[in-house]
Design goal:
This protein is of the alpha/beta class. The protein is built from 14 helices and 17 strands. The longest helix has 20 residues. It binds 4'-deoxy-4'-aminopyridoxal-5'-phosphate (PMP).
Length: 404
């Protein structure tokens, strides 16, 4: 059992009041809050260890380099990568996916196909769409059911010998659906395709095992996993990272440079041009240690309890439509209430101290497929409580009666 009071004490930001009301933070799919352990780790780095990495012979540079590389190793172990060199530090999911979409271009020909799903975040849609525009390849979209589920037989039908790449979210940031990524990877491999998984919503809420999924690439952001903004990871199978050209050029990513020739550095440095976000990497390691300390399975169980309770309470409201009712779901609940605009609800709830999200959640084609322009979304994390759901429901009922 998680000690939620103890957890909440680690997050000073949650102790505040907003508009005179205790903050209820239900916007965790946008970003999670950071525990003191993460904040302290970064602060300790800047107080005692700050130096550029991989460059200096001096003491601080060695301390910073060792800490940075230790973070890489910890993260590799955490997601079951086979080697730390399979972990490329990036700015976040968006950059990780753009990296692959950019350097994969040389493997895509005009007659090829790239398969995505209808529930992708723009970050896992636009880079592939633009790659198709550049190369003449076709973007194939596998549609989710109204419940927000993917039918693996439908998926299989979309795959053929032209499929070069399949890109799919592990968890949808709108519907909460947990996609069967292992099964989809197996099907994609049978068709000879590589697989890119957008793990932005999964990493803090599910055990992630890239060896078991067997995907070629897995992307995630630190800031959605209790770690700082501006740091993220691209996991790539060594075999693929070795084959791909660099994404950006400059310092760090080279082994030797002459005016007529450059030899690129070994993995993962080939993909890490310039000074990296060292404090961010240390913060990410600390956040993963924090999660591991409780056990991600325990966290999932607790978040499931919150989700079931919130879903049950929401369903009692008149005119309520929950968008995304897959059997395998994470604690992301999108909804609309008949006759009331999502934005109006969001604004009134903010006045009552509740932070949630309204809009298309960077998944415009998905939200439009429900005939909507926006939904209200609550997304829960391990520090949220049943009491907060009650406060939220009270505020929601009040807002609905004001708007009706
Ligand atoms: N994919 C999904 C499923 C997301 O929820 C998000 C963030 N909302 C992203 C990608 C993009 O993440 P970031 O902005 O951290 O790059």
């Amino acid at each position: 059992m998680l000690d939620i009071n103890q957890i909440r004490n680690d997050f000073p930001i949650l102790q505040q009041t907003v508009n005179g009301k205790p903050l209820v933070y239900f916007d965790n799919a946008a970003t999670t809050q950071k525990p003191m352990q993460v904040i302290d780790r970064m602060s300790r780095y800047y107080k005692n260890e700050n130096s550029n990495v991989h460059r200096g012979v001096h003491y601080l540079s060695q301390v910073a380099t060792e800490a940075y590389e230790a973070s890489r190793t910890y993260i590799a172990n955490y997601i079951h990568a086979s080697d730390p060199s399979e972990i490329v530090f990036t700015r976040g999911t968006t950059e990780s996916i753009n990296l692959v979409a950019s350097v994969f271009e040389s493997f895509i020909k005009e007659e090829d196909e790239i398969v995505i799903t209808s529930m992708e975040h723009h970050s896992n849609l636009v880079p592939w769409q633009q790659l198709c525009f550049r190369t003449g390849a076709r973007l194939v979209v596998v549609k989710a059911s109204v419940d927000g589920e993917l039918d693996t037989r439908e998926f299989e039908k979309a795959l053929n010998d032209k499929t070069r790449l399949v890109a799919i979210a592990h968890i949808s940031n709108v519907l909460g659906t947990i996609n069967p990524v292992k099964e989809i990877t197996r099907l994609a491999h049978a068709a000879g395709s590589v697989v890119v998984i957008d793990g932005a919503q999964a990493i803090a809420h599910l055990p992630v095992n890239v060896a078991d999924i067997d995907c070629e690439f897995y992307a995630f952001s630190g800031h959605k996993t209790y770690a700082p903004m501006g740091i993220g990871v691209l996991y790539g199978k060594k075999k693929w990272l070795e084959k791909l050209s660099p994404y950006q050029y400059g310092g760090e990513m080279i082994e030797s440079v002459r005016f007529d020739k450059t030899i690129f550095n070994s993995l993962p440095y080939k993909f890490e041009a310039g000074t990296p976000n060292v404090a961010g990497a240390l913060g990410l390691e600390e956040a993963m240690r924090y999660i591991a300390g409780f056990g991600v399975d325990e966290i999932k169980q607790y978040e499931d309890k919150l989700m079931d309770y919130a879903t049950g309470e929401l369903k009692k409201l008149e005119g309520m439509q929950i968008i995304g009712t897959a059997k395998q779901k994470a604690a992301v609940i999108s909804f609309v209430i008949e006759g009331i605009h999502a934005y109006d609800l969001g604004t009134l709830l903010d006045k009552m101290g509740v932070a949630l999200r309204t809009g298309n959640h960077c998944a415009q084609p998905l939200v439009e497929s429900y005939g909507l322009t926006s939904t209200v979304r609550i997304s829960l994390a391990m520090y949220n409580t049943l009491e907060e759901i009650d406060i939220f429901m009270g505020a929601l009922q009040k807002a609905v009666s004001m708007l009706r």
